Amino acid sequence: MIESIEVLAEPLIRNRLESLYCNLSKTQLDYKQLSSECEQYFRLIRESLPDHLQHSLFLYEDTLTSLQSLLERSIYLHGFKDAPSLFNELHTSLD
């Protein structure tokens, strides 16, 4: 039984990894470009703001970083939630 699950899971995992890798390079380029643009805009804002507002900008950037961390955590947890669905697909295929 375990061998048959492994035999069924291997192609599903391989297909999922291939689709992720195919989209990864474009995603990385998009991310790098957006990240670079974001840094440029923040640098411009930082240079334009008076000293007494610099701390407010820092807090804003910190908040954005926290939001991004929460989003990444949510995506990571969603991957774990996919596992039972994958298991159900495998189990259905075995029946």
Helical segment count: 2
Helix content: over 70%
Strand content: under 5%
Count of domain modules: 1
Q: Major beta sheet, specifics? A: none
User: Secondary-structure element sequence?
Assistant: HH
Provide the low-confidence segments as ranges.
Answer: none
Give the overall shape, derived from the CA principal axes: elongated
Give average pLDDT, whole number.
80
Number of strands: 0
Distance between the termini: 11 Å
Can you walk me through this structure?
The chain is an all-alpha fold and 95 residues long. The chain has one domain (2-94). The protein has helices at 2-48, 54-94.
How are the secondary structure elements laid out?
Elements: H1 2-48, H2 54-94
Helix pairs in contact: 1-2
Describe this structure in a few short sentences.
The protein has 95 residues and is mostly helical.
Features:
95 residues; 2 helices; single chain; mainly alpha
